[in-house]
């Protein structure tokens, strides 16, 4: 199959974007011999449930789940239904603990107590921000104390800030960020300015909420540096909303040094919907505890234990982390190998598209993980958020391409600039044809004189 | 198969506890002819994934889900995974609305806006009680204002009261209830006394949280009467925690008249884990809104819309309500027929056990739905909660019987009373043998003087 060469370990093998060798023998156990890694045929089989008519280059929104992990989940679901009482009393807690332990090792947390499993990053944000609301209510924080967030924070998190922080009397400050962006320094500069603004009003900055990988536009934020600046500048707590990060960028709790950190495992770690972890750094003195908002029998026993039982529900997605890890380890280099190959491929595909369309990338390669923003031709006339969504729908329905589109408003003085960017992703199931399909679709739209104004006609 | 006769519609048919006729032809469409109802063999097939070595008489804790609904759920899950973006943009909202509409009709709510779908009753309680906490914080309620609940309220709900009401400055009053109980009047009497206590401290009673069917011990509470009393006595809002009710007892929002009402569909309405509805009565003037605690894009668009998107997750259990309804309608009389036959059977089985053990039932038949409390022989020596749990484990591991046990402490002056009750259930998959197995296990334990 036509593919750019990556990981040239052996010249005689045909190489694929995901780095699997065609001479591999099918095997499920991670071995030292390269011949036992997953084959392209096996990868295809694992994702054969994906709609084959769709060029699926939006792994960022909903992730993906291989057939073997889906099967593990179904087994878990049926096992519960077979005898749920026994499952509840004798198996559930052990299974959740096993998943938490795997995650602890993956993210380099010190204690498994620091790892709670929740449904998704949205839930994790609610947990942290509800705690913030209680702090305002109970007088730990004073009215007007500041909570900082990025302007490009995920929309749901912004709503959560409104629901819990603003409503409780906190003052929310947004850090404007440049896009396109050329370097980490641009981000650091804006962040420092926002900190100054926050402190200048004489209030404490109680919490900084920082994305590790912003959603739209998609950029990898230098979180380690920003956390250090927060510590220097007296920000009380830092919460990293890293919805995308695990399996997409490097995730190391000791390295990053945040107080709270959350990431979804169903986006880039092959788990079924849905599962995320919320890391809460252990503090020497007992502070005010985070609680899961759905209060059940385990209330007061620590967030991890509370989160492991929030009433009768399907916990199977949280129990198949071992199966997801097993899947990951069928690839050369495990998750690190997958990340690297995804990154190299998405940069390569992004550059191919930008060149074909005469546009540019939204950030340098070192500020992206497995996703990258690619400028769209200006002739498409993307002039508002609705245009971006309309183009996305048009690409899905008319061309079988699934890709999110971002509308980037012109800044003062800018004329004829790129106002639309596509966020393309690369995951192990992708083929070069997916990106060619997208390239050709856009070129066809341009050649036909398509503009977004036509969509609302 | 050996079974007590129920629903004697036709003498020549063998009758089964679930009322299905053996001469039925397999059919999935509800028809007028009795021959098209689900057959015993089909029921057995639908629940063939249950552990056959277990006498499963605890439907109350985790419910059950027939194979055809599990299959519908798997199809929904795979459909999402196939093209999740399309599912999210074009299918999810319609599917949730369809489920909400079915539920609205089932429970006789006036508007589909009044029906939100959440994970379970525990989540619904958190939604109502978090709203209570905000009311205290924002000064709508004053510190010390009262929230009432039953002493037999579910443990998780008691924790939620602690986490949201007590912590926010509210004063929680528990209504003690008698058990064993002989009549609704005993419950009403205690409830009125608790209301008086609440009002006597000069504070407002802002909320009453009342179980429709208590969990342990399991008793059907006369909620309609209690709601009326609340209205008469100036209780501001009433929240009915009816985790068990839909598919187990009658559920009618107009009839009951509460402000908030929640019930799980995975217990007695054959849905997979997990799905519950939270009914919120529409009020003419816009009041303070309930919110889902997991805040996402739809924040501020009403609880039902908020609850239909709380981030990326598996909504399939919420989407298969149509399949569950289809399953229910394969039975004669639909859910009403199932309820009645379950009730009759569990009362019959309870009386059989009580007679065999020389004990009694914990409540009269008209105060139970599809579950009933049966006294255990005093010689078993259940003297604390741990004993009850230990006996439950012993029954599971040594006898293959799954049944929850309740420890009922002796009251002052009581000597030699029954201190342990089993909460048995009956659902369409049960057979008489399940209860014989339990009967014999207990008799064996008594004879062996364990």
UniProtKB/TrEMBL annotation, chain B:
Region described as Disordered: spans on this chain: 1-31
Record keywords, A-Z: Pyridoxal phosphate
Pfam family, one: Aminotran_5
Aminotransferase class V domain location: 91-362
PANTHER family reported in the protein's UniProt record: HERCYNYLCYSTEINE SULFOXIDE LYASE (PTHR43092:SF2), L-CYSTEINE DESULFHYDRASE (PTHR43092)
Protein's name according to its UniProt entry: Aminotransferase class V domain-containing protein
The species this protein was found in: Arachis hypogaea (Peanut)
UniProt lineage: Eukaryota, Viridiplantae, Streptophyta, Embryophyta, Tracheophyta
